[in-house]
Amino acid sequence: MISVVLLASEDLPGLAGQMAMLVPAAVDGLVKEVILVGASTLGIEALVEDSGARLVLVEGDAAAAFAAGASAARGDWILTLRAAPALREGWREPVEKHLAGGGGGGAPAVLAAPGGLLARRLHGVLLRRLDWPANGGDERALAKTLKARRLTY
Q1: DSSP string covering 103-118, please?
Q2: Are 124 and 148 in contact (CB under 8 A)?
Q3: What single-letter DSSP state applies at residue 153?
Q4: What pLDDT score does 4 carry?
Q5: Extents of the domains making up the chain
Q6: Are the beta carbons of 113 and 151 closer than 8 angstroms?
Q7: How far is the C-alpha of 118 from the C-alpha of 103, rounded, in Å?
Q8: The CATH classification of domain 2-152, taken from the options 3.30.190.30, 1.10.10.60, 3.90.550.10, 3.60.10.10
């Protein structure tokens, strides 16, 4: 159902932790695939091989990487992520509710976790694969372009 497009970085422990948070959702069928996008390094290649994720090699900024991952995605929905901030327990509930039609089911959404009294930490953007905008962008640009609603957990 969801293709997770995860921006590859040199933060291998962060990437591995992020991917570990996705495993239960993959087992349950919520996450169809994980696509790591970015430059190839030995550590990234090993992580991809060990996890069963796909690697899409791309040079450039986050916007280019996310666009390349979106082009390679096969799921109906795309969730963009980075190595940090790491997903926390409970991230699935608002996503599943959103996908089921509760609170704007087909609309793009921003997944955010509480990050203190005034701030909310942006995890990524959730949108239908077919709604990926031609001008793309990083998470904040995507959220603004798509007028994404906030999913907080």
Answers
A1: TTTTS-EEEEEE-SSS
A2: no
A3: -
A4: 98
A5: 2-152
A6: no
A7: 23
A8: 3.90.550.10
Residues constituting the chain = 153
CA neighbor of 113 nearest in space, from 127, 142, 92: 92
Query: Structure tokens of 30?
Result: 């919520």
Decide: residue 141, CB within 10 A, 0-12 exposed, 13-18 middle, 19+ buried: middle
Amino acid type, 80: T
Residues 6+ apart with CB under 8 A from 145: 133, 135, 137
Q: What is the pTM of this model?
A: 0.92
The series of mean pLDDT values per 10 residues for the chain, 153 residues long, is: 94 94 95 94 88 94 95 97 91 93 80 67 92 90 92 88
Of residues 29, 133, 128, the one with CA closest to residue 77: 128
CA distances from 15 to 12, 95, 149 (A): 5, 20, 26
